[in-house]
Amino acid sequence: MNFKIKFLKNLKKNKYKYKYKYKYKNFLNKAQVKEINFSEYLKIFNDNKFRVFSHTQSPGYYLANDNVKYLKVTDEEKLLAIVSVLKKRFFFNFLCVARINNGPLIIEDFSKRKYYILEIIKRFITKKYTRLISLSPSYLFKNRSAISSYNYIKMGNESFGTYVLDLLQSEDYIFRNLKSNWRNGLKKGLKHTIVSEVFDTKTINSILKEYENYAINNGFKPVTYKKCMAWFKNSRDNKNLLNLKIFQSFKAEESKKRLGSIGILFFKNKCLYLFGYTNNEGRKYQANVAMLWYSIMQSKKNGLKYFDLGGISSKTNKGILKFKEGLNGELYKSIGEFIYFGIF
Q: How far is CA 220 from the centre of its chain?
């Protein structure tokens, strides 16, 4: 009897195994990857719903002089996914690595095929560009062993995460959901500071230089001035591209004395807290809290659905981590970095 049960279980297990293999081979035979131009990538990005998408895969994240390839994946007539791939060269251009950062972007209805889609993209890249791939999968990918089964090797560096606020909730709900220390800081910030959006290019230049100096003094690498300026220009000239808005705060009774600034990225129905800094007086009056709250409420009024508070890890400064945790957003975690050597 036990032998019969074991035999039936193995039969069922093998049935699913062979069914999986058949579906996989059938998909690889039918699906296609095609290189597309930036205009087509932009249209697909704006016209379709993706289960998960990020600023690093948004049109405009890479600048015109970056060596980027835009790909789409189709199955017969059905669009399945898109991805932007950055080609980076090292050792006097001898070594070429294809970088996929928080991708691919998979159409909502086809998220169950994500590992198949990733595999066919890998095959296309190794055939057309390079046999070295650096991969940081999107939050849609949750199974490390599934990616490793396609011969990707997990890198030793740790995984990253982020907190995301649901802007479809009411302002009152978001406020009440704040942790007590954040709520108290907000009350103080709203009382002592004034926040406004910056439109003047000269002021933007000044703020970005201050942010650069702040980063150097605090030992972290800032987002480059070149990228920030390009994204800021998108906010004026082409809002369909990834764009940056910058907010600044002043002491309520001294409207010309800047306490700090923050930068918020906008893409589709999401926004992301890119950078923030304050001076000593700004920290005293909770200017960063007031600026972030202002940008959250502005984003909500403008119809955005999600507010991403930016990357965190075990190496994140405790003060910054506590600051981001204080908004009580939903935590998303990546599964880390992988590399494919193309020798299998």
A: 19
Residue 339 lies in a domain: no
Amino acid occupying residue 24: Y
* Owner of token pair 């910054």: 320
Does the N-terminal peptide bond of residue 104 adopt cis geometry, omega within 30 degrees of 0? yes
Task: Using the 3D structure, point to which of 114, 129, 154 is the last residue of a domain.
Answer: 154
Neighbours of 95 (CB within 10 A): 11
**CB 121 within 8 Å of CB 272:** no
Largest CA distance in the chain: 86
334 phi, psi to nearest 5 deg? -85, 170
Q: Are 258 and 197 found together in one domain?
A: yes
Beta-bridged to residue 133, according to DSSP, are 98, 340
38: left (phi over 0), alpha (psi -120 to 50) or beta: alpha
* Structural domain for 144, as ranges: 2-154
Dist. CA 324–CA 327, nearest whole Å: 6
- For 266-311, how does the pLDDT look when each residue is reduced to its tens digit (9 = 90+)? 999 999 999 999 999 999 999 999 999 999 999 999 999 999 999 8
pTM of the predicted structure, to 2 decimals: 0.89
Mark whether 205 and 117 lie in a shared domain: no
Amino acid at 271: C
Are residues 324 and 267 part of one domain?
yes
Give how far the C-alpha of residue 92 lies from the chain's centroid of Cα atoms, to the nearest Å.
30
Q: Are residues 72 and 101 in the same domain?
A: yes
Cβ atoms of 277 and 291 closer than 8 Å: no
112-135 pLDDT per residue, tens: 999 999 999 999 999 999 999 999
Residue 340 has pLDDT above 50, yes or no: yes
The residue-averaged pLDDT of 202-206 equals: 95
Total domain count for the chain?
2
In this structure, the answer to whether residues 250 and 203 fall within a common structural domain is yes
85/95 Cα distance (integer angstroms): 16
Contacts of 193 (CB under 8 A, 6+ apart): 249, 250, 251, 252, 259, 282, 285, 286, 287, 290, 291
